[in-house]
Amino acid sequence: MRESVRVIRNLVESPWTNTLFFDREIACEPGQFMMVWLPRLGEKPFTLSYPNGITVKRAGAFTDALTALEPGDTLGLRGPLGRGYPPLERPALIGGGVGIAELRLLALRSESPTFILGGRTAEEILYFDEFQSLGPVKVATEDGSLGEKGLITDLLPVDAGSYAVCGPERMMVACRSVLPDDRTYYAIERYMKCAVGLCGQCTCSGLRVCVDGPIFQGAKLEHMPDFGRRRRSKSGRWEKI
Amino acid sequence: MTALPEISPPLINASGILSYPEVFRAFEASGAALGGYVTKSVGPAEKMGNENPVVVCPEVEGQPLLNSLALPTQSPEDWETDLAETRLENARLIVSIYGGDSAEFGEVAARMSPFADIIEVNLGCPNKVPGEVTLMESIGQRPDLSGEVIGRVRGATKKPVIAKLSPNSDYLAVAAACMDAGADGLGCGNTLGPGLAIDTGTGKAILAGVTGGISGPALKPVNLRMTYECYARFGCPIIGYGGIESWEDAVEYALAGACLLGIGTAFLGKSTSEAAGLTRRIWEGVQAYLGGAPFSELVGRAHREPAPESARA
Ligand SMILES: Cc1cc2nc3c(=O)[nH]c(=O)nc-3n(C[C@H](O)[C@H](O)[C@H](O)COP(=O)(O)OP(=O)(O)OC[C@H]3O[C@@H](n4cnc5c(N)ncnc54)[C@H](O)[C@@H]3O)c2cc1C
Ligand SMILES: Cc1cc2nc3c(=O)[nH]c(=O)nc-3n(C[C@H](O)[C@H](O)[C@H](O)COP(=O)(O)O)c2cc1C
Ligand code: FES
Predict the structure, then answer these.
(1) Which ranges in chain B belong to alpha helices (H)?
(2) ipTM for this model
(3) Mutate which of A198, A223, A232, A237 to test chain B, going by most B C-beta atoms within 10 A?
(4) Which pTM value belongs to this model?
(5) pLDDT tens, A196-215?
(6) Which CATH number fits domain B11-49+69-190+216-311: 3.40.50.720, 3.40.1190.20, 3.20.20.70, 3.30.70.3040?
(7) How far is B102 from A221, CA to CA, in rounded Å?
(8) Does A202 contact ligand 3 (Cβ within 6 A)?
(9) Domain coordinates in residue numbering, chain B
């Protein structure tokens, strides 16, 4: 489905991150994404953090423009796309950076979630208060400004029925070394063009992240050596992660 | 004419769909009924293609897909590394190529030849980055230049050469020039148009490249006719492309004269296992229709004249 929506609110979450709310709710599974279109600037994938919102970290020209939108501005949406999370029992939601926001809808729709969150500073720990109302929250920051001083992996392993990990790929690789592959799900990011499985751009070891993912069970990653290692750039050339 | 190698099942993906060798391997591993795989078109130098959006997807079943990828490619050296690293298990590899002029086509063909069971020459891409001229306009609509390109490619490889035509051309004239220049078969064909889609919300063209080639069910009658006419005229091996999404579509193309059937847009939205399942259903349907007869019996049977021997390879 494609549609144009209007921005109704631009909420500053941190010095680098904003949540944009639209005038339309999208029926989606947690973990699915939308292709967000800004005419003349591009179209990129974003996970819904609200039924009517995405949380965006500024990383380049496109996200600079996206986070600068004001109420009343229009943007195009295509989706929901991809396969989200299966039902998770007693999940530990493990988020780093903007990956924390990408776990929000899953948190709201999970029973007895616990949270393990990490970032450089306290400002990167989004939704701390909201998550505390849903379950126990443990935090690690690199500068010690919130929770323990250190890396998210310092808080692992923890006991839980299942695990959902979302954050920078290197962080996910580190988490994977201590989490059970059969009960853990990872959210993979790749540059996307078509986002519907045609062009092959988003390949991770031959699986197309836009249709086979973006959520992958750890056991699948066993056969995906490109995870944490390389991705295809816009031209198709390999680049290191 | 060099006969095409045996490709069984006679189903392949279309160029620019799935694109990369590791994706082909994932399809093989999940039991796809594809006897061969076609790479994304390999160009003479690294190219990014258009900015996003590069597709306008059908909103309702049966609507066309528009795409304006505009031939992104890694460099031929990087393709060599890629194709050397990831080899197919059982299926054949068809390398699709393009260039800006015949010399570039020849160079790319020579470099890709060692990896390819067949070289498919893309003469008909109707997409461009704004400011460029499309391949279709610069070469694919011109019989003389298309013949020159095929001549160069012929000189650069001993592998069978397929000339993939544009439906927006005097394709019989182009095909005649290509066959004269040494092509072993024809690809019928590339996307139609290009067409245009405008977003009513923003009032702007959706594709960053403004226009995009039309594929999917809307393309089928056009390329089916091209297949039919090319078979009648040349009786050569033909790869049918355009809107193949069921066994009936596949049988129609075969009856019209295609000995290989390419699937592209039908993979839209499908996971690897769903896409592999679709290829198996298509192939099972074709086999049921054959009722035990060999697939070659079907090729060109819609024509009143019996099919020439050469097309039964
Ligand atoms: C399924 C999916 C869901 C996503 N959800 C969100 C979300 O909810 N919120 C959000 O802020 N972002 C999300 N992203 C990332 C987002 O789509 C953009 O890629 C990112 O925000 C970069 O934006 P940019 O164009 O402004 O920066 P760019 O100019 O593209 O690049 C900025 C930096 O990112 C690096 N980069 C480029 N490609 C990749 C890549 N494939 N992976 C990692 N880094 C890369 C570049 O090297 C550069 O340093 C998601 C991506 C995917 C695939
Ligand atoms: C996203 C996309 C990318 C394509 N890229 C190429 C390409 O690189 N080279 C080429 O010869 N044809 C390309 N095509 C055309 C297809 O190979 C095929 O000829 C056409 O789409 C018709 O088949 P279909 O209706 O099954 O998709 C592309 C088509 C699509 C939809
Ligand atoms: S982005 Fe085209 S296949 Fe995933």
Answers:
(1) 21-29, 76-85, 102-112, 135, 143-156, 171-180, 220-234, 247-256, 272-290
(2) 0.96
(3) A198
(4) 0.96
(5) 999 999 999 999 999 999 99
(6) 3.20.20.70
(7) 43
(8) yes
(9) 11-49+69-190+216-311
